Amino acid sequence: MILLLASVSAILTAQPLPLDMPRAEPYLVRDGERSYMEDRYCKLDLWVSRTVDGRWVDEEGRVFTYSTLREFPPFESSWYDTISREAYVRSVGTVDDDDITTRRRAAEMIAPCDLASECDEERFGAHGFSSVEYWQGTNETFIACTFLPKRSKVWRMATWHLAEDDDISEKLKEFEEMLFTRDGSIYEKMSALPAPKKKVEGERALLREDARHSVAAYPMWRVTEAPEFTVLDEIPQEGAFIASLTNELSQMRKSYAEVLPTPLDGSGVLCVARMFSSRERYHDALEVGGKTNMLWSAAYWSSRRREIVAYLPFLGASELLRTFRHEAFHQYITYACSAIAVSPWLNEGYAQYFEAGPGGTPPEQIKDVLEYEDCLPTLLYAGYDEFYSGSDAQREVKYRLALSVACFIERGAPKVRFKPFKNLKRDYIESLLDKKDMHLATAKAFQSKENLELFISEWRKFWQRPD
User: Fold this and answer.
1) CA–CA separation, 200 vs 89, rounded Å?
2) Domain with CATH 3.40.30.160 in the chain
């Protein structure tokens, strides 16, 4: 199913298990007149994402992993230092074909269990390979093998984490047959994958390369791209929808920037979205990412992984598009504010506002907010714990109030769009970037208690309009 005919081993008929994108740590960089958000990553995360070519899991839970050992960070630096992609690419060296120390250390980082201090001798004469090494250790629930093809200086690695009751001797024979001896072997299929470009410059281009690499081994996954977006999907017969979604996201990003401009340079930003074929596959991804509190959702913005994760729900493309617009706003505001926590009234309010498209949500679609006017001052200074707390009905009121604020700011009375609130959004974002505190940013945006009271008074007048 994945690499060869469906009748071969479970290795090849297993479910694709794409790696998560590396976890990002944001830094606000000020370089003369230019300011921008720079993502930095744990070196180990970056190395794994660029080294592991593919993973598959079968119905019994066996996990097969295939890797190419092209590069390795300098030994003198810590694996857990954070670094930008550009700095990482400049720092890595190659794994020489005769450097067994570096090769073992690389293998150790990928293997699911501790490795032996020395490799076992080659178990058989593998046709077409200069060397085959096994790093078994004392654990009999996994197989770890590094191998060097003839006429190549790049080592590969395969590991197979077995099921609890497997006989390792039998599985080793199957492993060797599938990896080395059968026509159309795993190695032959994986070696056909495109190698990373040697001269890719810029954070956006490097992130795009890594996003492509994360699904390159899986034939059912597609990559659709626009200048600021890369969409990865495994949804059959939905190519037209994915293409339109990619174009839609590009248009929405322009709308976000027009309504909430940022002083930060976003030329290095790439927005990644990953779409699974079913709710079950989506739930698997949520569980791996530690997001079991999001199982009710159809999409979410993973701020640490810097990607929107989604699936195509039963209700179809139109409902998913609304959800994507919402999550894509969270994505935009993360980059616009250097991943500093943005007040829920703005973050959730504008995310809902843009669900209807670039023009925003019409006021007539928002009902019954005046009865909750007394909650508005508290809402404007609420943090996320407070915003998300309470019953479903209480949260629904908070979301509706936040939406009403965003809609009022964009479509409200002239007094709001001009003095004293004409710079409300600009003041909020500038204060947030300067003070890194959402409550101070809200205070800066509304300037004084009197101005806040005036804002609420104008908000009330707007929502008292006849339908």
Assistant:
1) 9
2) 212-463
How far is it, in rounded angstroms, from Cα 220 to Cα 257? 34
3-class secondary structure per residue, 293-314: HHCCCCEEEECCCCEEEEECCC
Structure tokens at 159: 């590991």
- Which range has the top average pLDDT, 3-12, 56-65, 409-418? 56-65
Joined together, the tokens standing for residue 310 give 């989604």
pTM listed for this prediction: 0.89
Percent over 70 (pLDDT), the chain? 91
Cis peptide leading into 26, omega within 30 of 0?
Answer: no
Who contacts 110 (Cβ-Cβ below 8 Å, separation ≥6)? 48, 51, 52, 65, 67, 157, 159
212-463: in CATH 3.40.50.10540: no
Round the average pLDDT of the chain to a whole number and report it: 87
- From the list 48, 52, 57, the residue with the least C-alpha distance to 1 is 57
pLDDT digits (tens, 9 = 90+) for 114-155: 888 888 765 555 677 888 888 877 677 889 999 998 888 899
Contacts of 256 (CB under 8 A, 6+ apart): 328, 329, 332, 333, 336, 350, 354
- The residue among 210, 235, 230, 209 whose CA lies nearest residue 220 is 235
The residue to which tokens 């006989």 are assigned: 167
